[in-house]
Structure formats: structure tokens, C-alpha cells
Amino acid sequence: MDRYFCEQKISGEQIELTGTEAHHLIHVMRARAGRQVVVFDGFGGEYLAEIDQVRRDAALLRLIEHRPIERELPGRLVIAAALPKGDRQKWLVEKLVELGVSAFVPLTTQRSVSEPGEAARTRLARTVVAASKQCGRNRLMEIAEAVEWTEFAVECRADIRLLAHPASAAAECFDSGSASALLPNDSGCCQTLPPLNVPSEIVAAVGPEGGFTDAEVAAAIQAQWICFDLGPRILRVETAALVMAALCVDRLQQTAETPTPQCNETRKTNR
How far apart are CA 141 and CA 107, in angstroms? Predict the structure, then answer.
């Protein structure tokens, strides 16, 4: 069933669909009164609705039922990355939405090739809506305001903070007591994340083409970020961001599905 996004928070028994969503429903799909669709407002859940009235630039929908369907991750996942060039920005955001990422933070770095201005943020927000309609998410991925990397690295207080950066380049920034379990093995292959207690937030950061500078990496390590080596091949920004996102998604889902020792003890006691 076709899904449509309502820009206003849905309440009451009827809603009016306007703008590009109404144009698509009326003029592209040529929908008429009596047709049923699914609508969502990005705040969670979705509604089954029926078209009551169609005008040239708007459609009046009667809400039939609310469906409390959530397709979000068990924890909050934020991807922070320098924007790639051109259409690769849209592609990156689209795929992050599909993976279930909670928020995307555009970064400005010393080697940035694209400046994440307000116009770019507006375009990416439209991509979030389109991708959410396609993949079935009922909560919109946030597009945060652009932030300078060093400032973000220092101020970020997420439970787990991961930095995509080659281990060979990062090793010089580690002292003997700060080696991470996330550094690659001798083969140079990317390692999986270690077991986690379900955190409230994971943030993974990816640099621009050319990578983070030594000073930017040092600032992150000083702020207790964990370097993560993605292997010996050079990845595009959007590829690295998606790899980081997929690894975090997998670990979050596995952790949420694994009973904690305390839960196991409770089960034994109840028996």
C-alpha cells in the first residue's frame, strides 16, 4: 500500500494532505475518493486512511486506524561524516535511513570537499522523507546542523564513539596503555565490534576524502574516541559511513536479542 508523509503531527479524525505529497497522490497516482493509503508524520506509528475528497492541490483523508508500528533500532545510532561530492550525498543519506540510523551529522573538517550549508541540509531532509516512505520507517532520521569536527569530537558524550581511521596512522597517537580491542588483526582485515551492553547512543565518525588530519585524530583520541580500521583498501566517504553503520546496526541488534545474565538468573529463580 502506498505511503505518504504528513508534514503536520497527525491528530483527530481527518487530515489534509498538501504540497508535493498531495501532488503525487492526485496527479501522479491519480487517486480518487475511496482509495486507502498509509500516512505517517515522522513521530512514530502510522495510520490507515481513506481518501474522502480530492481537490486540485490537496486531499482530505479520513483516518481509519492507528498502527503502532516501529521499525527502529534498539539503541540510538548517529553517523557523523564529511559530505561527499554531488549526488553521492543523497545516496549516502538514503542508505543510512534504510539501515535505521537515528541521526546524521554533517562535519566540516580541514580536508572537506563539500560545505554542508543550509540548502544542502534542506535537500537531504527531503531525501530522508522519500527514503522513509520507501523503507517503511515511521520516524524520520534527523539531519543535524553542520558542525566542526574537533568541536564535535570534544563535546560528544555518546556511550560509544567510533572513529573510522587506519590503525597504522592512529597507532602513533596511542600511548602504551590505550590500545583498543577495535584495532585490526595482523592480516589488516576489519574486526567486528566487541560485545556491548545496549547503550543509549553510538556515534560513528567518518572523515572526508583524504581522511582526518593527524591533529584531528589526536583530538578525537584525547576525547576517548575509539579508532576503527576498515581494512587496507581506500574507501569513499559514503562507503566507509555505510560500513560503520552496518557494523553498529548488527551489533545493536545482536545485543538486544541476547539475554543478560541478570535475566537468566531471574528465569532460574522463577522456575
Answer: 16
Convert 224-256 into a string of H (helix), E (strand) and C (coil): CCEEECCCCCCCCHHHHHHHHHHHHHHHHHHHH
Domain with 34, as residue range(s), is 3-67
The pLDDT value recorded for residue 167 is 66
pLDDT higher than threshold 80 for residue 2: yes
Please check whether residue 263 lies inside any domain of the structure.
no
**Apex CA 243: angle with CA 237 and CA 249, to 5°?**
135
pLDDT tens track for 61-118: 999 999 999 999 999 999 999 999 999 999 999 999 999 999 999 999 999 988 888 8
As to burial, measured by CB atoms within 10 angstroms (0-12 exposed, 13-18 middle, 19+ buried), residue 6 is buried
**Cell 542508505, residue located:** 95
Residue 268 domain-assigned (yes or no): no
Asked whether the beta carbons of 165 and 228 are under 8 A apart, the reply is yes
What pTM did the predictor assign?
Answer: 0.85
The C-alpha R_g of the chain, in whole angstroms, comes to 22
Give dist(CA 211, CA 217) in Å, integer.
9
For residues 161 and 3, give the distance between their C-alpha atoms in angstroms, rounded to a whole number: 35
Q: What is the CATH number of the domain that holds 57?
A: 2.40.240.20
- Quick one: which of 77, 105, 97, 13 has its CA closest to 252? 77
CA 13 – CA 108 distance, rounded (Å): 45
Whether the pLDDT of residue 172 is over 70: the answer is: no
Nearest to 112 by CA among 206, 194, 36: 206
Structural domain contains residue 267: no
